[in-house]
Write a structure and sequence with these properties.
single chain, alpha+beta, six-stranded parallel sheet, six-stranded antiparallel sheet, 6 helices, 20 strands, 18% helix
Length: 315
């Protein structure tokens, strides 16, 4: 019989991570499921922090009887795992996606942070969540991912290529003055303007940076590409929603300032003046674990504290 393994990625800045991980270890030990953790989470933070961190202690977990493997945080970390469990907020989820996506392993978040929009469940439901994961009572959805390429001036071959689950942000590298941009959709120019930058997002990312920049909220099961200018110096630079089959390109004016493309707030690519960024739907989707979670409309109301006083519903 093949041993089941869950990879756990944790935000060690949360004091609740130790307790939650202990519960997961105990439940997995009883179900003969092994745990894999990344070495990054077992070390104290290398950066100065105001509050204490809570590194994962493999020996503490092994004391529960669970089989624990420590692995490096790279593209092979999740290989062979049944799923990846994220303990933390949206930042931790995006870090875990870098491990799950290359291995095509399903990903599920348990929110230990503040908003935690990407999380499938809150920390107080950890026992219910584990019941469903251990018994296999979960389903997997595909979430759209963006393919991002950067081409240097005068070159036909991409210099850099990456992906984004939430968004790619093209912004002024120096944060001084505006970035002169030309947007293109499916090989045709659409608009030219100066701005702090431009966001190209998935429906999953519509409630993140794109939302703060004035973009629309999109239900995550939609398939589309969202284009949102950031503080554009123009009268008619409005958000656009394009087909998921479209290719959105952004060219930085050759006589303007240098830019940078930031993918999911984690992976940065230099974009010199005159460069071109092309964004399209990636050939592979991210596999997303779903349990009997609340409808997306309820999540919007909860996460953003939306007023719904007066609602009576269908009679």
């Amino acid at each position: 019989m093949t041993e089941r393994t869950f990879l756990v990625v944790a935000h060690t800045g949360r004091d609740s991570v130790t307790q939650t991980l202990t519960v997961i270890a105990q439940r997995c030990a009883a179900a003969d499921i092994a745990l894999r953790i990344v070495d990054h989470d077992t070390r104290p933070s290398a950066e100065p922090v105001d509050e204490p961190t809570h590194p994962v202690n493999p020996e503490h977990l092994r004391a529960t009887g669970v089989n624990v493997e420590v692995t490096r945080a790279d593209s092979a970390s999740a290989k062979g795992c049944e799923l990846v469990i994220v303990l933390g907020g949206d930042g931790t989820f995006l870090r875990a996606a870098e491990l799950a996506y290359p291995a095509s392993v399903p990903l599920m978040g348990i929110n230990l942070g503040h908003i935690g929009f990407l999380a499938e469940a809150e920390s107080h439901r950890v026992d219910d969540v584990l019941d469903m994961l251990i018994s296999g009572r979960y389903r997997i959805e595909d979430r759209m991912v963006l393919d991002v390429t950067v081409t240097d001036p005068g070159d036909t071959r991409p210099r850099a290529r990456t992906w984004a689950l939430n968004e790619v942000v093209i912004q002024n590298r120096s944060h001084n003055g505006v970035l002169e941009l030309v947007t293109e959709v499916d090989g045709r120019p659409v608009s030219a303007f100066g701005a702090d930058g431009l966001l190209i997002a998935t429906p999953t990312g519509s409630t993140a940076y794109a939302f703060s920049a004035g973009g629309p909220v999109m239900w995550p099961d939609l398939e589309a590409i969202l284009v949102v200018p950031s503080n554009a110096h123009a009268l008619f630079a409005r958000p656009m929603v394009t087909s998921p089959r479209s290719t959105v390109a952004v060219e930085i004016h050759r006589d303007g300032r240098d830019g940078v493309a930031v993918n999911d707030g984690r992976r940065m690519i230099e974009v010199p003046a005159g460069s071109r960024i092309e964004v399209s739907r990636a050939p592979d989707s991210l596999r997303w674990v779903r349990i009997n979670s609340e409808p997306f409309a309820d999540r919007l109301v909860t996460k953003f504290s939306l007023p719904v006083t007066g609602w009576r519903g269908r009679s």
